[in-house]
Write a structure and sequence with these properties.
Rossmann fold; 12 helices; 266 residues; two-stranded antiparallel sheet
Length: 266
């Protein structure tokens, strides 16, 4: 994608900018940020989040694609923050520990979430503005999905603030909430990509139940034993399992399934 918006890109990435600096100061406290933390402001826009972060002496990288907004950010904050002109969906995250605060275009919210858990180095925590329905979907408050299972396995996910339409310019015609993600202390992080592959495989087979989906991975006797051990119905569907049950399945897969079968998962 070109670094400059054309008219179609401006429409595609239409953004609602937060107006009130005091509200930004308030929501920053929803994420526990150690002194001197590196924080990425994804879709920095007019710089209202960047400005408040710099007041607290955090190290800030403000990422913005729009040329005009980028130039203004550079003029306003270039001496104190690193200003990057780039599509936030193509951003390579830094190798060191970092945090994210982002008020992105709402139509790319789910892609940002995927980028967070797929990244080689994922953020320690994040605050992300999003449409109510999109947030509820990715954290599994509607029907569990690949995204919600993965996300809840490695992050504590909470809706921590409900915005008013008047908080933004222009006013959004959707309900906006604030999602907080905080890393969980789980061994899944050591096998993150393998876990993602396992969950994706289990959902993608689309047979009559989860046991059928995984019949090339687990024998029927293994599946019966797993269902009894982790207390789920032997004919359960992928959406029926809890996060702890998925983790139990994966742990058995990791330790007890032979390498040939694991090749099917990826």
């Amino acid at each position: 994608m070109s670094q400059q918006y054309n008219s179609q890109q401006r429409q595609t990435y239409a953004q609602n900018f937060i107006k009130n600096p005091s509200l930004i100061r308030y929501i920053i406290d929803f994420i526990r940020l150690p002194e001197g933390s590196l924080i990425l402001d994804l879709g920095a826009g007019q710089g209202i989040i960047t400005r408040e972060l710099l007041k607290r002496d955090y190290r800030v990288e403000a990422i913005e694609l729009d040329s005009q907004l980028y130039q203004q950010l550079q003029a306003d904050f270039g001496e104190k923050a690193k200003i990057i002109q780039q599509d936030i969906l193509k951003l390579k995250y830094p190798p060191e520990p970092f945090y994210i605060i982002s008020n992105p275009p709402f139509n790319i919210f789910s892609e940002i979430i995927k980028g967070i858990y797929l990244a080689k180095n994922s953020p320690e925590a994040a605050l992300i503005f999003g449409q109510k329905e999109a947030i509820e979907r990715v954290i599994g408050q509607t029907e569990p999905s690949i995204i919600s299972i993965i996300l809840n396995s490695i992050y504590k996910c909470e809706i921590v603030y409900n915005f008013e339409a008047d908080d933004f310019s222009p006013k959004p015609n959707v309900e906006v909430k604030l999602l907080r993600l905080e890393k969980l202390a789980t061994p899944i992080w050591e096998h993150k990509q393998d876990y993602i592959n396992f969950i994706s495989y289990a959902f993608s087979q689309q047979k009559s139940n989860l046991g059928k989906n995984l019949e090339d991975i687990f024998t029927y006797e293994q599946w019966k034993r797993l269902a009894k051990t982790h207390q789920f119905h032997i004919q359960a569907k992928p959406q029926d399992l809890s996060i702890s049950q998925w983790k139990g399945l994966y742990q058995y897969y990791l330790n007890s399934v032979d390498k040939q079968k694991k090749k099917l998962v990826g």
